[in-house]
Amino acid sequence: MNRLHPRSAVLRVARAALQGGFFGFFGGSLGTGMFGLPAFAVPLLGLLGALTFSGYALARYFRFQYELDGDTLTVESGVFARQSRQIPLGRVQNLDVEQNILNRLLGLAIVRFETAGGSATEATLDAVDEAEVKRLRNYVRTHDRDQAAEAETATADTVSEAATPGRSAHADLPGVTGPKPTHAGDTQARNDLGEPVSESDTAERDQPDGSLLFAFTQRELLTYALVSVRPAAPVLTLASLPLGMDVVWAVLRFNATLAGASLSGPVVRWLTGSPETTRLAVFAALSVVQFLLLALVVSVALTVIEYYGFQLTQADDDLRYERGLLRRYSGNIPLEKVQTVTIRENVLMRRFGYATLAVETAGYSGGNQQSTQGVAVPLAPREEVYELARDIEPFGDLDFDRSPKRARRRYLARFSLAAAGLTAVAYALDTLLLETGYWWVAALLFLTVAPAAHLRWRHRGYDLGESVLATRSGFWRRTTRIVPYYRLQTVFVTRSPFQRRRDLATVGADTASSSSLLGGVARVYDIDEDTAKELRDTLRERLTAHVAGLRTGDRAGDADA
Amino acid sequence: MESLHPRVRLLWVLSTVIQASVLGVIAYLVDRFAVSLPQTVVVGGWVVLVVLGIVHAIAAHRIWRFDLQDDALFLLRGVVTRTDTSVPYVRVQHVDTTRGPVERAIGLASVVVYTAGTRGADITIPGLRPERATELREQLRDLANESEATDAV
């Protein structure tokens, strides 16, 4: 059995001592104030708190043991409630490594093992040193490879011609992965994959056989930061504005003077004292532009911090990513655990021919670490992204079928209703409160209704490929999902009352993906009801056929061996 | 296609009554300790909710169907938005029968089918006689096991 690194114990004990000391100190101060404890109780309680907390931390350190043996990871933990956990390595979906600044100074790293079950990370080693990280990673990877190699020698003859659709995993959760792999064609295809870009400067220290698939130069990183709009950035900016309220007031004051207001007191007094409409408009426009610029800066900074030094490598059948400026993240994604492949392009990226590639596994079921999951290539030219996507999950050229034209009429009706609602609100606000007489400006929204409906309709579609279902949706951020048939979970068809009026239906294909926010569901929106039923039956048939196909190949291979 | 036991309507109506009454109690507390609410609104709201619940229960029972098809469990449901769900037997992780307190009082049971998916990872078939629920659970278990065995041949 192994222990965590002693340096991590020192770190934890120190942290616990600080916490306990603070706790005791705080309690002591409260006690002297409220119950008249003598003054020396304060340092005494502080010391007691520090000792108790650090003692517990030390006990936890000594209780925590782990071991990699055969194909199992065993973790013993817990001081009072003791726990012993065993994780079959074949079920490990992801292995993630995180280093914050302190850890990096100490040469330590936190390792997380993710499996498909459970609501949280299944095993966290906090922390081990870098050599141990390498050993763990290699053990898990080569364990996979050994298994794969066995299967490969067994199935090489029988399966290569059997036209089995894609690769799949070891015997696993029946729902999460398909049956055993058919690596014969796969490994071959992967040898000559993705021209290694300048392998020398970002040398693969611990994976000599890893080939670099993708890396960011500084300029590309900045481009990515600029074009990838983070919806969270304005919210974050707004939330942190009160921290610099003085600066905010000063800027607002400056804006007011620029707008030509003669200020005799605080800006608020000018605002509440019914200023002229034009001045107010200039003032508001200025402030909004400044705010958006600030949000953009925040967004760029966040993205740069998150993706600094990003690189994606491939070693055998694992994808391996590394990224982060302050906290370094790295992780392994076994290709055979990939559930769906998603290609995202927002308007800006589409304009310049770029795209984002994300792969999803069933690993992070707790919904923790949303930001780390899945992004395989943050930004690359579209062709490269598709090439890599095809390599992860083979699919042919995508030729999307659009929804029938009456779906577009549905969007038209829906957007018109929304525009009418907003105009009504604007009218009510204006007549009751503002009395500017400009409420009809909101009615200009109707001008956008027709193009909006058309764009939504145009960017939605689906394609039934030979081994995958592809769906596409979204204008501002177009998302293309590639779902292999053998990864399908449930299939459902929904019809809202509005859809029923037009004989339309939406088909959803669920997979065991992890992102609960984006949803593992690939949706085919607003297709003809009969087509929807056909699609549902086709999906069910193909799921059965492809699972059966894989199993047959598997069995034949086993019999051979 | 099999429909649910008619008594499931009573179950649904009862749970609406319970929910509406909880809301009523909250309204009473608000009325007592915070803002005064007109009594007609509270009572009227309760009646409207219960009537809606009854209408919904009748409609839902009329629409609800399920069927054990060759390769998948098939469900048809939804009053406002109609949904049909296909759960392939290969994807079934495990099957539960559950009986809540109201269900026990009425003498009904539910079967819950779990998949590894994200949406609809647990699918509930309510309103079954307890014997039927047990039977269905065993059928589903066998079908899930079988689908793997036959596939591998």
UniProtKB/TrEMBL annotation, chain A:
Segments of this protein annotated with the region Disordered: 144-209
Keywords: Membrane, Transmembrane, Transmembrane helix
Species this protein is from: Haloarcula amylolytica JCM 13557
Compositionally biased region (Low complexity): 150-164
Chain ranges passing through the membrane: 12-31, 37-59, 247-268, 280-305, 411-432, 438-457
Alphabetized Pfam families for the sequence: bPH_2
Transmembrane helix in keyword set: yes
InterPro entries in alphabetical order: UCP026631 (IPR014529), YdbS-like_PH (IPR005182)
UniProt entry tagged with the keyword Magnesium: no
Domain of life, per lineage: Archaea
The name this protein goes by in its record: Membrane-flanked domain-containing protein
Residue stretches making up the YdbS-like PH domain: 61-139, 307-390, 457-539
TrEMBL record, chain B:
Pfam families: bPH_2
Keywords assigned by UniProt, alphabetized: Membrane, Transmembrane, Transmembrane helix
Keyword flag Nucleotide-binding: no
The keyword Transmembrane appears for this protein: yes
Domain YdbS-like PH, chain residue ranges per copy: 62-140
Transmembrane segments: 12-30, 36-59
Protein name: Membrane-flanked domain-containing protein
Organism expressing this protein natively: Haloarcula amylolytica JCM 13557
